[in-house]
């Protein structure tokens, strides 16, 4: 009999792999769907409680498999209702997930990597460097945990109605583990969320944007943050590998695959860096007539940053300028300020970075 360490962790496995596992036990494929419903819809992880499996199947499950989660280190509750969890991810590392309740929905912002190699100039995660990719179990485990500890909604729906990959890490640099998670989020046998309610945010790993369009067409948010290549090269260094033109072409192709689907462009408002009327005009030129929405994010400061947040009036003016040019533009409300849970402040703890500076070589490694 395998020891605990050798048992197969069923959490985060794609349906096809669960089916193979059950085939190995001599069981039919529908067993995989039953197991997914127990784990993700009912939150049950004890094989003994899975009453529609025969006693012998339950025993075989217990002998060969496990449902294992990352340990939650701490929970922090903001006065505005935002909740942040720190998950232990081995050798002193931490990653974070943040739940943002709003009227009519509950959004969970999840992490995909311990740190990030892409080194964007204004990002606390980037400043820490990269340690490793999270496994699919560690990523979906964040959703599982939030639904487990938060009260259900009035209509008995689970607390998490929307999931955004806007925590730590670059999800498209961990493509192999992120896609199975996306599939579970939209699967009727797991979380059953509509594709509209699942958003991948990327700094622009173009080949994987193309691939995602074919594999799992969820909503896409792109961290643009600059209106020309010169500035974007400084703020979002992956731009040197995939410049704005190339990135936008991939975005429009992604949008074309989905009728009525808009791409959201995130734009962090950095005082005197990217927030002038001229920048707004340049941005409008890039997006004019395209299926695009702009989401302005007031910069969230963190220790030792060289940047400051644009003034409220500057942000309002920038937004109005875009709107006058016919571009849909909103400004993100900052939530969870008092618990350092706002965008870009998620630093978790990366104690053992393996790469801290971005180079073409390590972007290729990171995206492989
Ligand atoms: N790596 C992905 C997703 C994680 S970051 C990406 O870059 O898109 C989620 C969003 O927060 C991105 O738009 C990112 O650029 C933005 N962000 C990073 N640091 C920030 C900060 N200090 N203040 C405001 N937004 C920030
Ligand atoms: Fe990585 Fe996104 Fe932060 Fe850039 S903004 S360093 S891609 S987490």
Instruction: Give the DSSP E fraction (strand runs of 2 or more residues).
Output: 15-25%
Q: Specify the CATH architecture of the largest domain.
A: Alpha-Beta Barrel
Q: Write down the Rg.
A: 21 Å
- Number-wise, the strands total 14
Helicity, as a percent range: 25-40%
The number of distinct structural domains comes to 2
Looking at CATH, which topology of the largest domain would you report? Answer: TIM Barrel
The hetero molecules present are: S-adenosyl-L-homocysteine, iron/sulfur cluster
Distance between the termini: 35 Å
Order of secondary-structure elements: EHHHEEEEEEHEHEHEHEHHEHEHEH
Shape verdict: elongated
Per DSSP, the total helix count is 12
Major pleated sheet: 10 strands, mixed
Unreliable spans are 355-368
Give, in spatial order, the strands making up the sheet with the most strands: 3-4-5-6-9-10-11-12-13-14
Determine the CATH superfamily of the largest domain.
Answer: Aldolase class I
Quaternary state of this entry equals single chain
């Amino acid at each position: 009999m395998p020891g605990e360490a050798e048992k197969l962790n069923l959490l985060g496995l794609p349906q096809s792999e669960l089916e193979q596992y059950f085939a190995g036990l001599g069981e039919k494929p529908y067993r995989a769907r039953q197991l997914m419903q127990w784990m993700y819809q009912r939150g049950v992880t004890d094989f003994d409680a899975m009453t529609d499996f025969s006693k012998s199947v339950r025993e075989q499950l217990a002998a060969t498999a496990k449902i294992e989660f990352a340990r939650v280190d701490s929970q922090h509750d903001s006065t505005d209702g935002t909740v942040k969890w720190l998950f232990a991810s081995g050798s002193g590392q931490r990653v974070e997930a943040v739940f943002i309740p709003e009227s009519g929905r509950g959004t969970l912002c999840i992490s995909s990597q311990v740190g990030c190699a892409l080194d964007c100039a204004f990002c606390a995660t980037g400043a820490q460097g990269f340690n490793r990719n999270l496994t699919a179990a560690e990523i979906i485990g964040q959703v599982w945990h939030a639904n487990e500890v938060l009260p259900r909604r009035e209509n008995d729906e689970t607390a998490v109605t929307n999931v955004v990959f806007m925590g730590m890490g670059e999800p498209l640099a961990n493509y192999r583990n992120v896609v199975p998670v996306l599939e579970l989020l939209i699967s009727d046998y797991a979380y059953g969320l509509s594709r509209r309610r699942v958003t991948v945010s990327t700094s622009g790993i173009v080949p994987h944007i193309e691939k995602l369009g074919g594999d799992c067409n969820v909503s896409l948010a792109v961290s643009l943050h600059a209106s020309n290549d010169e500035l974007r090269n400084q703020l979002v260094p992956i731009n040197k590998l995939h410049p704005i033109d190339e990135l936008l072409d991939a975005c429009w192709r992604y949008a074309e695959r989905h009728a009525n689907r808009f791409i959201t462009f995130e734009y962090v408002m950095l005082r005197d860096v990217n927030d002038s009327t001229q920048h707004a005009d340049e941005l409008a030129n890039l997006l004019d007539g395209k299926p695009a929405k702009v989401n302005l994010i007031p910069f969230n400061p963190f220790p030792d940053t060289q940047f400051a947040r644009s003034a409220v009036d500057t942000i309002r003016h920038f937004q109005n300028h875009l709107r006058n040019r016919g571009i849909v533009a909103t400004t993100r409300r900052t939530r969870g300020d008092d618990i350092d849970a706002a965008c870009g402040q998620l630093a978790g703890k990366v104690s053992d970075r393996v790469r801290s500076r971005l180079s073409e070589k390590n972007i290729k490694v990171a995206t492989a």
